[in-house]
Design goal:
Number of domains: 1
Structural class: alpha+beta
Oligomer: single chain
Number of strands: 6
Number of helices: 3
Strand content: 35-45%
């Protein structure tokens, strides 16, 4: 399908496609994680580590009918995000997120003896089991976000 072939479509004909169904999937880390900084409304500075993921396959707990409605899940994109509060008063929060990142990298099969920078690079191409959840947007309940929550080794 090409975008240029869609230029004759009426906007009213364009419908929201179904979300990837909830449940567990095997995911692949597609590329080196992106690291961005931003400032929250409260003035705290954050660093965000984002892993780009591609779906490999659904697990047995994903609804078959919903999978059929969605279509081919292989390669469906998602992300896993770790938010680091850099405020010096939030050291415990920072370390908690660091521990969660360490656990995630372990679920990806990354060797724990590596330094963090090396481990981030070693995560590329690895697989893990991740739970896909739906979360409504606080601004528009009709918009549903899909998020990869808890993870485990494959």
């Amino acid at each position: 399908m090409r975008f240029s072939d869609s230029l004759d479509r009426k906007l009213e004909e364009i419908k929201r496609p179904p979300n990837l169904p909830t449940g567990h999937y095997i995911w692949a880390v597609n590329k080196h994680p992106d690291i961005d900084t931003f400032e929250s409304k409260s003035g705290d500075e954050w660093e965000k580590v984002t892993f780009q993921l591609g779906c490999v396959s659904p697990h047995d707990d994903v609804d078959e009918d919903e999978l059929e409605e969605y279509g081919n899940v292989q390669g469906a994109m998602n992300s896993k995000v770790f938010m680091f509060n850099t405020n010096s008063d939030k050291k415990a929060d920072f370390e908690r997120t660091m521990f969660n990142l360490r656990r995630f990298l372990g679920h990806c099969g990354v060797d724990e003896s590596l330094g963090l920078a090396e481990a981030l690079g070693a995560s590329v191409g690895t697989n893990f089991l991740g739970e896909l959840k739906h979360r409504p947007s606080p601004d528009d309940p009709e918009v549903i976000f899909t998020e990869v929550g808890r993870t485990a080794e494959v």
